[in-house]
Amino acid sequence: MAMPAVNASCLAVDGNERLTNYCLSARSADAAIPLDLAKVIDARIKYEGYDDGLGFEQVVAPRRFSPLFMPFFEYERNINGGNPAEPLELGNVTLIGDPDLERKDGLVYGAGVGLAGRWLVGEGRYLDYSAIATRREAVDHNLNIDGRFLSICSKNHIGSWRYIDACARRYGEEKRLSDAEVDRVTVSLSQMLSSNGRTHHIVSLEPGRIITDDYRQNQIRASLETVYGNGSMTNISFLYGEDKDAHVATRHQARVGYQGWVAGLLVGLTATRSETNETTFLGYERADRTDQIMVKFSLSERVDLELGYTKSDSTINFFDYAGFTGGLSISPFFLGGD
């Protein structure tokens, strides 16, 4: 008699931790599981705060953190935070910018250091946190980019595969000609479900608030992530942002993605369209639309090659942009800890 296929297909791609665990749980029911896979499931359950797991002796510490190191090597289209090189044309007026303020593009390399951890506070309840500082240096210019990222999330299982989470994040970036700092606070409601024995979903609704130096905006995002019987995954999300007529802010965003095995290679594909609200720039109407497509090839368990193309169309040609992007995405090296 053939045994149900509880297999590593749930772990075949880089997925949502909870969706992966739900997939493993659903496919493990009434099935004979290999010992090694059972130990993996046991550890993953305990890492979500369930002390008993599947009954193995392995103990997961309630408070865990680790220093980390993140290498970077990628293409950056605006290293210095400068302006487009093209003239600014508004009606019959043409303005020529200062060449010293034009944006510089090229390859950058660098690293980030920080720490990340999890504090288990109960069954299915925990705090995830991280703090990272980065520096990237330009290969062809005497320029660098400094970044910082802080995050803390309270994650909570409220029963019947339902979850409520609250997160606060801050991202800052410093370039020679510009600085940016963005705070984002979100609350998300999620539900796991299966459409058959081997297709599993997580549906989420996430209201949030964005705070920048220039404006504050309320947003809401709806998303659906799915893992299939062969281990491939898809995701789709829609974001709606509050109209901020005095600022350039995201009004709508749609994103679709796929991750799966193609000719023995793990491949990811993501397509995104974003639109800003209508505002004015020096008395002229401005609205932008940006389309991006990204392809990711997994070269090893730790290194991915990312290639993409971005095209922005604006009602003011000065803000148009089209070009390729890419780089090596390298998973953080965790350096031990408690």
CATH class of the domain at 243-331: Alpha Beta
Helix-strand topology string: HHEEEEEEEEEEEEEEEEEEE
Q: How would you state the average pLDDT, rounded?
A: 91
Give unreliable regions as ranges: 1-6
Please give the count of helices: 2
Main-sheet strand order equals 1-4-5-6-7-8-9-10-11-12-13-16-17-18
Q: What's the N-to-C terminus distance?
A: 45 Å
Structural class: mainly beta
Strand content: over 45%
The main sheet comes to: 14 strands, antiparallel, barrel
Would you mind describing this structure in some detail?
The protein starts with 16 loop residues before the first helix and ends with a strand. With 338 residues, the chain is mainly beta. The strands form 3 sheets. The chain has a 14-stranded antiparallel barrel with strand order 1-4-5-6-7-8-9-10-11-12-13-16-17-18. A two-stranded antiparallel ribbon has the order 2-3. The protein has a two-stranded antiparallel ribbon with strand order 14-15. The protein has 2 helices and 19 strands. A hairpin with a 3-residue loop joins strand 9 and strand 10 (216-227). It has a domain at 243-331: Pantoate--beta-alanine Ligase, Chain: A,domain 2.
Tell me briefly what this model is:
It contains 2 helices and 19 strands. By secondary structure, the chain is mainly β. It has a domain at 243-331: 2-Layer Sandwich (Pantoate--beta-alanine Ligase, Chain: A,domain 2).
Notable features of this structure?
338 residues; mainly beta; Pantoate--beta-alanine Ligase, Chain: A,domain 2; 14-stranded antiparallel beta barrel; two-stranded antiparallel ribbon; 2 helices; 19 strands; 59% strand; globular
